[in-house]
Amino acid sequence: MLKFPENFLWGGATSASQCEGAYLSDGKGLSTADALPGGKTRFQTIFSPDFDWEIDETKYYYPAHSGIDHYSRYQEDIELFAEMGFRCYRFSIAWTRIFPTGIDTEPNEAGLAHYEKVIDTCLKYNIEPVITISHYEMPLYLAKEFGGWQDRRLIEHFVRYAKVLLERFASKVKYWMTFNEINGALHFPALSLGMIPRTGSNDKQLVFQALHHQFVASSLVVKLAHEIDPAIKIGMMTIYATGYGYDCHPANQVANMEKNQEINGFCCDVQAGGSYPSYTQRIFKKYRVKPLKMATDDLALIKKYPVDYIGLSYYMSTTIDVIDPERAKVAGNLTGGAKNPYLKTSDWGWQTDSAGLRIGLNELYQRYHKPLFVVENGLGAVDILTENKKIHDSYRIDYLREHIIEMGKALEDGVELMGYTPWGCIDLVSISTGEMSKRYGFIYVDKDDEGQGTLSRYKKDSFYWYQKVIRTNGKNILTKE
């Protein structure tokens, strides 16, 4: 029987821009997420050289503007999380609710008061808040006027923002993460770096420079947090996609090694390991990146203040094939890759691989010897609401059960695992397509891809299943009950 620690943090995860809505309420400023149009062509639009962060509601629908109205309904939603038995709730704070433009000298008290109520509601139900400081959004002003994180001045603005949060909530919130899926910047710089083609997102020199600024900012926040309260834990958050060579051809194995270093290793080596890895020069040579601009104490700061733990999202593995360019391809969270003939494929073309999670957890723990926290994992699928308001999502239960089993095996391997917060524990807007129909939650939200619906909440079959998982601390996981 699999055994999870008694203090294991079972819970769920959301982000502000994908669920809150109320995009201009109570003094909130515009964020980059507010300027992302919905639809399957979302990424094609923001990768276009014509994209300029302008909001044109006559041309596009912007799902972040309304989300699922979690901003107004957080009490109702957290009560449902409590009914499931959540021990923690991972959510993010919208930077623009605290500093509307990012350069404001004084924080917006209405925004701070709102999150204090959210935090207090969690604590009322003995739910530990786990807060992401920047989750794929930033003040639109900083993206338009500064070109995003390529400008070193963003370090100062971000640390000021983080300082306000930490000083306000340090007594109530122990677990924090700085940047969501920081390595996603290598492929989707608009989301985390606030950079688009017009401002250099296709220039790897600028992308790596922007990442360096985030590394420095993260270390400064670790330093600040530990000065405020040594008990605070600051984590990084990375996409982890366990990689395989398609076959035993040495070229595929080498290609897989190099991709794992670039995607899974680089940001972790800096933020968790405390230094730029030895293979940095190979990556920089590949992308023709010249030495980065650094302040004299940047590297010492990064070395002295690494993160306390590693948060990761895991949805799928990737398969590398450089031998056969005609090999069938699949989509993915960070990158796609060759189609793995041994894996199932989701409604959105992502291949599911629960064993890859165990492999990835072992790879991370053996390399960094830091606690790990699976803060995103889940199945995006089309759910059908029946006439009697039921959702029979056995496919989601199967997916989650298989991944939890592999986490249990990783614990047996000796991996130090803090907790598990499946992604979007309540249906929310997909970051990749802006769709509601790509559902992840234990709770169904009545809203469609065009923004129509009652916003009523309904419990899925997976709601009751996960409730029992938490109640038994995973002891029932080997059954479908």
TrEMBL record:
Listed under GO biological process in this entry are:
carbohydrate catabolic process
Keyword field: Glycosidase, Hydrolase
Example GO CC term: the record gives: cytosol
Pfam families linked to this entry: Glyco_hydro_1
Q: Which domain of life is it from?
A: Bacteria
Q: Which residues are catalytic?
A: 376
Q: Which InterPro entries match?
A: GH, Glyco_hydro_1, Glyco_hydro_1_AS
Could you give a GO molecular-function term held by this entry? beta-glucosidase activity
Q: What is the name of this protein?
A: 6-phospho-beta-glucosidase
Species the sequence originates in: Vagococcus elongatus
High-level lineage: Bacteria, Bacillati, Bacillota, Bacilli, Lactobacillales
